[in-house]
Amino acid sequence: MAAPFYKVQAADEATAGTAVAATAKWNSFNIRPNVGDRTIVQPEEDRGSLAMFHTGYTTSLNANLGTLEGDCTYEDLILPCLMAIETVTPTQPNSATDPNEYLWTFNPSWTSANTAKTFTVEWGDDVQMYESEYVFATGLTISGETDGSWQVSAPLVGRQNTSASFTGALTDRTLERAIFNKGTIYFDDSGGTIGTTEFACDLVNFSWNLPLHFEPFHGAGGQLYFCGVQEHKVAPTLTITMVLDSANKVLATTDYTAETVQLVRVRTTGATMDNNAKYINLDGGYRILDISPLEASGGLTLATFTLGAEYDSGLASMFSLNVLNGVSAIP
């Protein structure tokens, strides 16, 4: 539990590592950074003394911002996605009829480097506030279960923690939570069209995990902090628990044994804006890797599927995350 006056606010950086004043509060996220941001060495020296250490020095700076976690909102899910997947700008599917609707499409390049959007994060309370620049995410997890909201978590790193003062006069924004029960799931065989075959009311929970993607690179660059960001190959996994029924049992009886790659969409929708509802589409091509023992839930049978993302030539992608909201620019 944080102190009563603890808060976090941030802004995206025009130039990675150049600190900027915060432009928005991050109300829906819980972030508990480590205050310590340096590696300190105490060398043992032969001084003819019983005291083991007589000096110490810093070898590197690296701010551990902890894990960003909290409710997934249509407005702020884009923030960890920008830090963990790629830097994007929104488009307007139909600016004439839907002038207040913006689509954020996170579909990274598979043949060239992607860039993590970096932020300056201000955090602390009425006693002490810190500013951390060059903040980005090393991974991303999105999950949800029945009767709750979608959840998001992302490990954050930054360059250093500097004592500073909060940017003032920032207002609280209106955020809409992504509710699990308003969602659904689709499965279609590779070669088909994603989002065609819906298994309504079957999804019980899911967890989508993007492990290490971006990571700080440390080298001799004239400073103690990291020089930049390095990118790793990605291998997302999707774990889902579903009611196994006559409509979807083909996933276990045919698609798993035939090793048919599945085009999967996990989706949830929110309030209507101009003419369309806000939505989050978590899309991708997946191979079914494992199926758990069947479990009973009342009179229903549940099965948990473990799926590994796989590049699909029809999608020309491995995964994509699409958010339709009313946010025209990074808050």
3D architecture notes:
This protein has one domain. It is globular, with a radius of gyration of 23 Å. The chain has two helices and 22 strands. It has an 18-stranded antiparallel sheet that branches. By secondary structure, it is mostly beta strands. The model has no long low-confidence stretch (mean pLDDT 96). The protein has helices at 78-84, 250-258; strands at residues 7-12, 24-25, 29-30, 38-41, 57-61, 63-71, 102-106, 119-124, 129-137, 140-145, 151-158, 161-163, 183-189, 203-210, 214-217, 228-231, 237-243, 262-272, 277-291, 295-297, 300-309, 319-325. The longest helix has 9 residues, at 250-258. The chain is 5% helix and 43% strand.
Quickly list its features:
18-stranded antiparallel beta sheet, 331 residues, globular, two-stranded antiparallel sheet, mainly beta
